[in-house]
Design brief:
194 residues, alpha/beta, Spore Coat Polysaccharide Biosynthesis Protein SpsA, Chain A, 7-stranded mixed beta sheet, two-stranded antiparallel sheet, 7 helices, 9 strands, 29% helix, 23% strand, globular, MobA-like_NTP_Trfase
């Protein structure tokens, strides 16, 4: 599928409990906020629609400067609630790509491979590092209604494990799909930037 026909959903409103009290997505990584790295990467492609679920005003300004429409989640929302909130804003797209803002090293080549994998009966393309299935994930339009009905902290996991779903798994290096959850993770990410 072509990105120009698809919606991009960036989830950038997690509670970051394991990171401590600081706003993880606003933490400096290589001279810009962590939460803008993957946003900048995927913004190199043209999308039918770019949506971000974001709680931080500072991050919201940066995302809007990159052309994202932003929506604000409820304070007690889980990842499923946030994904549903964004999916309800999607208008006439052939599918959606879901990314997490705390994954700064996802390469554009991997994003393009996920989109290319959709079609010919394949309705979901999911990333994997070893045995772990992780975002980013590309969904065809057949799953948008289900995404709109998600809730809680499960995200799209129930869609991914459905026996009726035709899924392709695209492997990537673990360091490309590395997500930053803790201060130790951030330290590793900063060392990679040096």
């Amino acid at each position: 599928m072509k990105s120009t026909d698809m919606a991009l959903i960036l989830l950038a409103a997690g509670r970051s409990r394991r990171f401590g009290y600081a706003d993880k997505l606003m933490a400096d990584l290589g001279g810009r906020p962590l939460g803008l790295h993957v946003a900048q990467c995927v913004s190199e492609m043209r999308w039918r629609q770019k949506l971000a679920v974001v709680a931080s005003d500072g991050l919201r300004d940066g995302l809007m400067a990159l052309g994202f429409e932003t929506v604000t989640p409820a304070s007690d929302a889980g990842i499923g609630d946030n994904l549903a909130l964004a999916a309800r804003q999607v208008n006439s797209a052939t599918g959606v790509l879901v990314c997490l803002a705390d994954m700064p090293f996802v390469p554009l080549t991997h994003i393009k491979a996920l989109l290319s994998a959709l079609g010919d009966g394949i309705t979901i393309a999911v990333s994997a590092a070893g045995d772990a299935k992780v975002p980013p994930v590309a969904f065809s339009a057949t799953h948008i209604a289900t995404l709109r009905g998600l809730s809680g902290d499960q995200g799209a996991r129930r869609i991914l494990i459905s026996a009726a779903v035709q899924t392709v798994i695209l492997d990537a290096a673990a360091d490309e799909l590395f997500d930053i959850d803790t201060v130790v993770d951030m330290k590793r990410a900063r060392e990679r930037f040096r």
